[in-house]
Amino acid sequence: MSITFYDLAGAENGLRFSPYCWRTKMALLHKGLDFETVPWRFVEKDVIAASGSGHVPVIVDNGNWIADSWEIATYLDRTYAGASLFGDDTSRALCRFVTTWCDTAVHRAIRPLALLRVMQVIDEECQAYFRESRERMLGMTLDEACADQAAARVALVETLAPAEQGLSQAQWLGGTDPCYADYALFGSLKWLHALGGSIPFPPDSAVSKWFERILDLHDGYARKAETADF
Amino acid sequence: MSITFYDLAGAENGLRFSPYCWRTKMALLHKGLDFETVPWRFVEKDVIAASGSGHVPVIVDNGNWIADSWEIATYLDRTYAGASLFGDDTSRALCRFVTTWCDTAVHRAIRPLALLRVMQVIDEECQAYFRESRERMLGMTLDEACADQAAARVALVETLAPAEQGLSQAQWLGGTDPCYADYALFGSLKWLHALGGSIPFPPDSAVSKWFERILDLHDGYARKAETADF
Questions:
Q1: Largest alpha-carbon pair distance within chain A?
Q2: How far apart, in whole angstroms, are the C-alpha atoms of residue B173 and residue B162?
Q3: Enclosing H/E stretch for B67
Q4: For all residues of chain B together, what is the average pLDDT?
Q5: For residue B229, pLDDT beyond 90
Q6: CA A22, CA A5: separation in Å to the nearest integer?
Q7: Is the pLDDT at B96 greater than 80, yes or no?
Q8: For residues A155 and A152, what is the distance between their CA atoms, to the nearest angstrom?
Q9: What long-range pairs does B145-152 form, CB within 8 A, spacing at least 24?
Q10: Percent over 70 (pLDDT), chain A
């Protein structure tokens, strides 16, 4: 039985932009698992209530509801054979660190570039929810958070310095093969990419070349995904 | 034959404060290797010229000169048996990432807290070198870089968010055992600690408790080390 995966969608079903859901999609693909995505919107808390969470990603596998991208990844890796997402125990701990770095430093840097784009791809009811919840979290308006796009692009490049340096030495953050750390950072950048934004690195940079490589992984799944056009 | 290790020292031989040298010391201790430290000052380029580098750490092992903390760590791990510094190949790649994160984000956050302290523990000739080289690198005076200590402490806590979150889930960045990623971040914080600065986390934080655990490792080597008192 294939896994059901609740995936954040825009007003149009095809536009999938959540960084956390992208991690989970890449993890499912890496493990070679069949899954069916169900488009889900910010306000549809009832639909995923059985997971105990109000946020996606959420999966249902053999009747088990599992929420949270990290919990899902570790569940998939211990439940299913196939290529490990993590490597050894040390790698799993370090993947967790990289994931948390994405959640904190990288997302802080991407938010000014992404938040107003999100507002443009979701419907009116979701806009009200998104604006209220994010403005409360940030302690400022979305317009204030996104006021200086040029500064935000510079800050994102500065934040990604360890990735640019690491990827100039190896094909993947995980070395010779992609691991969950690659998917975590990819999710963050795919967030911006899906919303029609560009990654602020030149095409010959290590980060850009790595991003293109991930778009090509797993039969080009992420490359084929819809992106916003504005 | 024991390994010779050129270790940055203050005007007093006993004060060792380089973040990069602390990584190397912890790596040598982790591998259980005998080493003899030689105090070295910023201006003593001639002494380590055979390494091809103008900076420490530098080691001499069986007549081989090796510079750069990452190169030394990978040399030690592939040359000597005993506990691995890295785990598997994925872990080594991720340790490199964490090390680069320390070199970039963490050091950018610590510099405003550390640079003027360095000036107080080195002699006059080294002060001239240090001020000129760092002001050129930063594009501002040391006084400008260190102007707002309170803001710097807030920024350091923000920067270390992934470490605080990771270490609230596990004893070490490497999970159940310390790995080179732990030593890389420890070196960064020991820099400030050796210079008499305090880590801007409360004692019951995950980062503070982890820092105390590393001070106790290897017979308390780092805890016994001299710290500046001013």
A1: 48
A2: 10
A3: strand B64-67
A4: 97
A5: no
A6: 11
A7: yes
A8: 5
A9: B145/B111, B145/B112, B145/B115, B146/B111, B146/B112, B146/B113, B146/B115, B146/B116, B147/B112, B148/B112, B149/B112, B149/B113, B151/B112, B152/B109, B152/B112, B152/B113
A10: 100
Are the CB atoms for B181 and B210 separated by under 8 Å?
Answer: no
8 A C-beta contact, residue A57 and residue A218: no
- Single-letter amino acid code for the residue at B4: T
Residue type, A229: D
Question: Amino acid identity, residue A180?
Answer: Y
Phi then psi dihedrals of residue A85, to 5 deg: -80, -15
Number of neighbours of residue B157 by Cβ within 10 angstroms: 16
Per DSSP bridges, beta strands B35-40 and B3-8 are parallel
Distances in Å between the Cα of B128 and the Cα atoms of A31, B15, B133 are 57, 19, 9
Q: Is pLDDT above 90 for B82?
A: no
Size of interface A-B (CB pairs under 8 A): 115
Q: Measured in Å, how far apart are chain A's first and last C-alpha atoms? A: 38
Residue type, A142: L
Task: Give the global pTM.
Answer: 0.95
How many of the other CB atoms lie within 10 Å of CB of A91?
Answer: 30
| Average pLDDT of the segment spanning A116-123 | 98
Angle between the N-to-C axes of helices B19-30 and B69-79, in degrees from 0 to 180, rounded to the nearest 10: 10
User: Would you tell me which residues 145-174 of chain B have a C-beta closer than 8 angstroms to some C-beta of chain A?
Assistant: 158-159, 161-163, 165-166, 169-170, 172-174
C-beta atoms of B105 and A105 within 8 A? yes
Rounded CA Rg of chain A: 17
Taking only the tens place, the pLDDT of each residue in A82-99 is: 899 999 999 999 999 999
pLDDT score for A128 = 98
Q: What pLDDT, in 10s, does the model give residues B5-42?
A: 999 999 999 999 999 999 999 999 999 999 999 999 99
Query: What is the distance between the alpha carbons of residues B148 and B171, in angstroms, rounded to a whole number?
Result: 33
Whether the pLDDT of residue B1 is over 90: the answer is: no
Torsion angle of C-alpha atoms A83, A84, A85, A89, degrees rounded to 10: -170
Chain A positions touching B90 (Cβ under 8 A) are 86-88, 91, 174-175, 177, 179
Q: How high is the pLDDT of residue A230? A: 74
Rounded to the nearest angstrom, the gap between the alpha carbon of residue B22 and the centroid of all alpha carbons in its chain is 4
Q: Which amino acid is at B189?
A: L
CB-based contacts of B76, cutoff 8 Å, min separation 6: B27, B28, B31, B33, B85
- Could you say which of B94, B161, B165 has the minimum Cβ distance to residue A95? B94
Residues B2 and B32: beta-carbon distance below 8 Å = no
